[in-house]
């Protein structure tokens, strides 16, 4: 039988850790989204503890930033070989230092697990996670944004030796999203009561919660754009202070090809069809 897996912070030895606040800031630009999540906990026990922060990530999403602040210690995650990262994390914890280790869970590729070592007694833990996602377009033309919330439980196998507790609700919670499009934004819908304000001739919109958020459901926004079927180009400027790929500009092109209906015989219909997409790279 599957047991209940809880997202959020999971501590050893039933250490009490309270969730003080959670903020979610989303920027939707056409068919891409940037998500910035910040949560703050406090270790209310009288001793150091080690914890895990379990977080769901959508299939078409990528984590590009994770930072933690434990007391006065600021930790920034960097990509390293798995075995090297584990070794460095263990060495830091054995020395009594605060440390973080990010990895995918062994049971699911869409769930990330952040190990937090040596959280001091009565100390706050501030976590920041940044994600980028490619958004899908539904049959009715809606561009769908879906975000599993950190606080929601999820059904799935969990290790027998872990101390999973009910996910706490934050004492403070804030959510705001901005939506940008080259043409007009026709409508924005959600299962949650939201307030949508349009600006710039409906080319820009802000979304906020109209009522207290229901943590029993993930957030789903359906954005309807004008001229969604027309080719669109989205340019993401690189970071001048970074090196390698992150310093380069990135362009995303969205094309909805029109494929005319062709009458075919029954025999031809049985054959697989292939579509070739050509690209001219001349500048």
TrEMBL record:
The protein's matches in InterPro entries, at most eight in alphabetical order, are given as:
VIT
User: Where does the sequence pass through the membrane?
Assistant: none
PROSITE patterns per UniProt: VIT
Q: Where is the VIT domain?
A: 3-133
State the signal peptide span.
none
Q: Which PANTHER family match?
A: VON WILLEBRAND FACTOR A DOMAIN-CONTAINING PROTEIN 5A
What is the designated name of this protein?
von Willebrand factor A domain-containing protein 5A-like
Q: Which gene encodes it?
A: LOC115232031
């Amino acid at each position: 039988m599957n047991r209940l897996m809880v997202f959020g912070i999971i501590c050893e030895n039933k250490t009490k850790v309270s969730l003080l606040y959670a903020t979610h800031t989303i920027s939707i630009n056409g068919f891409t989204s940037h998500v910035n999540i910040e949560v703050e906990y406090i270790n209310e026990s009288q001793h150091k503890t080690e914890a895990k922060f379990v977080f769901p990530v959508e299939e078409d999403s990528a984590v590009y930033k994770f930072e933690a602040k434990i007391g006065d210690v600021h930790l920034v995650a960097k990509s390293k070989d798995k075995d090297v990262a584990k070794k460095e994390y263990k060495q830091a914890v054995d020395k009594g230092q605060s440390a973080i280790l990010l990895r995918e869970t062994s049971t699911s590729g869409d769930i990330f697990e952040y190990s937090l070592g040596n959280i001091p007694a009565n100390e706050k833990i501030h976590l920041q996670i940044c994600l980028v996602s490619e958004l899908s377009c539904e049959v009715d033309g809606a561009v769908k944004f879906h975000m599993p919330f950190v606080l929601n439980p999820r059904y799935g196998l969990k290790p027998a030796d872990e101390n999973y507790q009910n996910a706490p609700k934050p004492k403070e919670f804030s959510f705001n999203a901005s939506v940008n499009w080259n043409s007009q934004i026709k409508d924005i819908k959600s299962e949650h009561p939201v307030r949508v304000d349009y600006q710039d001739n409906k080319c820009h919109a802000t979304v906020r919660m109209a009522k207290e958020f229901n943590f029993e459901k993930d957030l789903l926004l359906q954005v309807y754009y004008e001229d969604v079927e027309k080719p669109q180009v989205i340019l993401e400027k690189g970071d001048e202070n970074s090196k390698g790929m992150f310093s380069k500009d990135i362009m995303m092109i969205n094309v909805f090809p029109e494929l005319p209906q062709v009458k075919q015989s029954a025999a031809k219909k049985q054959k697989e069809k292939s579509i070739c997409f050509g690209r001219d790279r001349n500048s």
